[in-house]
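Milestone M4 deliverable, item 7.
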Amino acid sequence: VSLVAPGVDFDELADVVPATLPEGPWVVYAGNPDAYQDLPVLMDAMRRLEGVGLLMVSASPLDEWAGMGLAKFKAVQTSDFDEVKQLVAAADVAAIPRMVCSGFPIKLLNTLGLGVPTVIAKGSARGLPGEVVVPNGDAAAMARAIRGLLDAPERRRELAARARSHVRLACTWDARAAELEAIYARIVQQ
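Output delivered:
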């Protein structure tokens, strides 16, 4: 069995002008707030990070998350992908707490393609440059990883550059088509 992962249109991620956020630092979660996203783990991690804001961006309502005891919280409900990209690009770190991901988290390609290092639960990680992997369900580890990135701006910049470069070179639809063509060529030769 050969697997060709989904891709992104890198042109959609290039030249994004970050939104203006209140004074940071900011962690972003962009996606739906359904139970399988394991957002309580992220909320627990964020409660451990004094002075760090959580920006949640979703096409779904986010009202229930606003009252979770975070001192610095911003929710934006939008289905406008251009606005989502601008908000994600404005954050210092992205977070994906989802512990079980049977598919491929497209939001990961988007955050990395926008140059935002991403703290991600092991169950959703894909071994891509720019990921900082933490154990599933471990809010303390997620908080430590986020703090570690926030306290190391040079490391964040290096991870961001590697992530963007990898997505641009290896995760576009053209790159995925080349992978698929190579599989076809290998099958035909057998």
